[in-house]
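Entry type: protein chain
Record version: 2
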Amino acid sequence: MHKRIFLSETESDLAKSIAQTIENKDDLKVVSKDVPRETNNRWQNYSQIVEAVRELHPDIIIIQPGHSPFEVENFALASQLVGAKVIYISSSEVFDGSKAVQEESAGLVDKDGNQQVKMRFVPYDEYDFLRPATELGMSFVHGEQYIQRYARRYLILRPGYLFDETTMKMVDPAQLIPYGNPIITPTKIEDFAAAIGVAIDNGLNGVYHIVNPGEAKTVAELIQYYQPFVKMNLVKPKETDRYAHNQMLTGHKFTDRTGYTLPALIWKK
């Protein structure tokens, strides 16, 4: 018997990759009912979501990025009507980007004789405290809280910086570089979609990070790998600005629970 999967979005590259992963599995089936983007209150009308959920009767609802916390709350509440599990795709933006460890200073001292301290950014894991630095991050935190409060069964997935090679080769870098040019763990969209299929197969619940193993980069470095001759015009943040510079995640928990590791990203010189 097929498990019925309701996608909250069907038009994005991520949605298409997830749908492709689901259609390649014999026991899963997409049953989405999309609402045109020109509809201003797309999924904010609770009765609209209830109608779709009752009509499609999904076993799993996958809520993708781009929905407001209010929409996420509505999906979580509606899931109770049919006992559906909710998979919420969150973000590394839920962290403030300050996680770091002190490195050995090798006896270096400054001109006043004080020992120099050097800090190194390290990846966030699933047990780190949520402390967003931006409004976008706060919206993801609220989304996670609504899922945990109202969905009877849930899985929260936080990918690294999602990208696909076609976009990286063609799109204007100015449209892709977040403020402050954060350091990231790049995650291919198709690999993340495949990991969602693994998570469903293993019946995962709780919170997991999903990332490709490999070298961390800044967003500008990732773009420049695919567009080596493009000129970067980076805006230098002010000291008073709030942004998450460290958006690295570790995916060890997912691998430990499923035995599955995403393909490693190898950056050729």
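Comment: The helical segments are 13-23, 46-56, 69-82, 135-150, 165-170, 189-201, 219-226, 252-258.
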